[in-house]
Design brief:
CATH class: Alpha Beta
Structural class: alpha+beta
CATH architecture: 3-Layer(aba) Sandwich
Radius of gyration: 18 Å
Shape: globular
Strand content: 15-25%
Strand order of the largest sheet: 2-1-7-6-5
Order of helices and strands: HEEEHHHHEHHEEEH
Number of helices: 8
Length: 287
């Protein structure tokens, strides 16, 4: 149920609304909101802990998505060839490919499943296809300098123990990113800054068809244009993307992360309430 709150009509109202969550959230909050005027040029609306490293959960998959399409840009037909999924990559968790007896999806199918239903088996297969080092290198080329991929999905669970590679700072997660890094990804997407239009068209499909809509877009009208990727683990919830209520306006890029949550806390509730406030402000702004 949408919570009761004061109206959000001005940018000052929005800032006060967002500041309140930093105080009442039972954990750590990171937020970046801005209108991208270029691939790394924003009219910033709000930022808090935007350059701090958070556990990425499944939001790391946007970096894998970019690296895949960068690798095949100029030869996108290669993405349509079918392939088997290696047994060791068919881990549990979100998705469905680990449940199918003999899946032979194309690389494009894997990319869409990785994003729209957060399929972990698809993700692990694409990590093998692209390579962890290339994912990080590609991410850095669009300004995601603090994004790190050092393990596959579900890499420490059950019979599907997977290799964890490389090093990272002690006390930090193996896979990590920042709100500002994710904002740069979506700014690159909005401005089609580094790849072909065809590549961006393919990349946008699963982001716009995201099936996990209980975070930032939870209270938004169904017809609202939102392209995004969510992520969650027991101690964290994340959502990053862009939202638009007018074709004539530059979309608003958002990245809202909550981590270090205590047991039983639901960060997605806070993210949904923030999304609701942002949407109200956008509608007032364009009225």
């Amino acid at each position: 149920m949408r919570p009761d709150r004061a109206p959000i009509e001005t940018e000052s109202d929005l800032v006060a609304h967002l500041d309140s969550y930093a105080e009442k959230l039972d954990g750590r909050l990171g937020v970046f909101l801005g209108f991208p005027r270029g691939p790394d040029d924003f009219d910033v609306v709000y930022r808090a802990n935007a350059d701090e490293t958070f556990t990425s959960a499944s939001v790391i998959k946007i970096a894998i998505l970019y690296a895949l399409y960068e690798k095949y840009d100029g030869n996108l037909a290669e993405l349509d060839r079918p392939r088997e999924i290696a047994p060791e990559n068919r881990v549990a968790g979100s998705g469905l490919f680990h449940l199918l007896s003999d899946p032979r999806p194309s690389l494009d199918d894997l990319a869409r499943a990785m994003i729209s239903i957060s399929d972990n088996a698809a993700t692990n297969e694409l990590i093998d296809e692209v390579g962890m080092e290339r994912v990080e290198d590609a991410a850095s080329r669009i300004g995601m300098d603090d994004t790190r991929l050092r393990r596959k999905m579900m890499a420490t669970l059950g019979d599907n123990d997977l290799e964890i590679t490389g090093e990272w700072p002690e006390g930090e997660p193996a896979n990590a990113t920042t709100p500002a890094d994710c904002a740069r990804f979506f700014a690159d997407l909005v401005h089609e800054a580094t790849l072909s239009s065809d590549a961006y068209d393919r990349m946008t499909v699963p982001l716009a068809e995201q099936k996990y809509t209980g975070s930032f877009p939870r209270y938004l009208p169904f017809e609202t244009t939102v392209a995004h990727k969510t992520g969650s683990v027991p101690s964290a919830a994340l959502d990053a993307g862009y939202v638009s209520i007018s074709d004539s306006e530059t979309p608003l890029v958002f990245a809202v992360f909550a981590d270090e949550l205590e047991a039983g806390a639901d960060g997605s509730d806070a993210i949904a309430e923030i999304g609701d406030g942002v949407y109200e402000w956008l509608t007032e702004r364009t009225a």
